[in-house]
Amino acid sequence: MRRKLVPVVALSLACLLVATTACSSGNRKKRGRSTDRPAGTAVERDDVDTAPATIRATPTPRRTGDHLTCVELRDTRVGSRKVRYRGYAAPIRLADGRWSDRDGTTVELQRPCAVGDLDGDGAGDAVGVVVLDGGGTGRFFTLAAWRNVKGEPDYQAQVDLGDRTPVESVSVRDGRATVVYLTRPADGPMAELSIRRTAVYQLRGATLAELRHTDARVTDASGDGDTADSGTAPDSPDSPTRKRRPRSR
Questions:
Q1: Residue 48's pLDDT band (boundaries 50, 70, 90)?
Q2: Is 191 helix (H, G, I), strand (E, B) or coil?
Q3: How many CB atoms lie within 10 A of CB 5?
Q4: Which of 58, 80, 196, 208 is the most exposed place for a label (fewest CB within 10 A)?
Q5: Domain count, the chain
Q6: How far apart are alpha carbons 16 and 26 in whole angstroms?
Q7: In a domain, 184, yes or no
Q8: Which domain range does residue 95 map to?
Q9: 117: how many CB neighbours lie within 10 A of its CB?
């Protein structure tokens, strides 16, 4: 009986020793893991995306002080909800300087244009000329002003220059716009352009107010509504409208 009990007791002691050693080793590993991590370190998890979030670059807006260009007017709006162009309820969008309606009416941006500060905010605004052609004999000229709003042209004001009154030049200086165009007396025939008018305008809110104008007689312009020259000064030797006077002998 004693011989049978000795192996059983020995086997039990061996199993108890193995279990005790395994538990002690597991506790040491746990303590080692906890002591290796500095205090306050977050626990890494496989189910959490630790990649940094993608930051989208914000486009840099154009500075308010940027000047508009005459080229920009070729693809801008003519008229607005507040300032209607020739009775159109909605603004007209030019495409490469031109717009056409289904009935054949066209609106075209003319060559004379100038850039300068009109409202005193330091930004370069633009002044240009647009012509409405309804398909008949009339060609209606309008002097228009675009304010510089965050670097974009915004239709601000306009003034009617009349029917078949071609514009020779436009300039901006000291916050005022000067336009030189051909016209006629109120009782004169439409086919005759006998007056070269120089008018000065100032932007006042949504209007271009005329400050003054001076007239000079001309005899070398027709009333077809086309620009008399390409912006060359009337008294310049290169002006196509300037005639040579015969020399006196």
A1: very low
A2: coil
A3: 9
A4: 58
A5: 1
A6: 16
A7: yes
A8: 71-217
A9: 19
Burial class (CB in 10 A: 0-12, 13-18, 19+), 130: buried
Domain annotation covers residue 198: yes
The answer to the question of residue 167 being in a domain is: yes
pLDDT confidence bin for 225, thresholds 50/70/90: low
Tokens 């061996």 belong to residue: 14
Q: Is 30 left (phi over 0), alpha (psi -120 to 50) or beta?
A: alpha
Q: Is the pTM of this model over 0.70?
A: no
Please tell me which residue, 233 or 1, carries the higher pLDDT value.
1
Q: What is the DSSP letter of 58?
A: P
CB-side neighbour CA atoms (13 Å) of 104? 3
- 69-73, 185-189, 232-236, 243-247: range with highest mean pLDDT: 69-73
Q: Place 10 in a pLDDT band, splitting at 50, 70 and 90.
A: low
Give the pLDDT mean for 199-224.
89
Is 213 part of any domain?
yes
Other Cβ atoms within 10 Å of 193 Cβ, number: 24
Cα–Cα distances in angstroms (integers) from residue 135 to residues 107, 143, 179, 208, in the given order: 11, 21, 26, 28
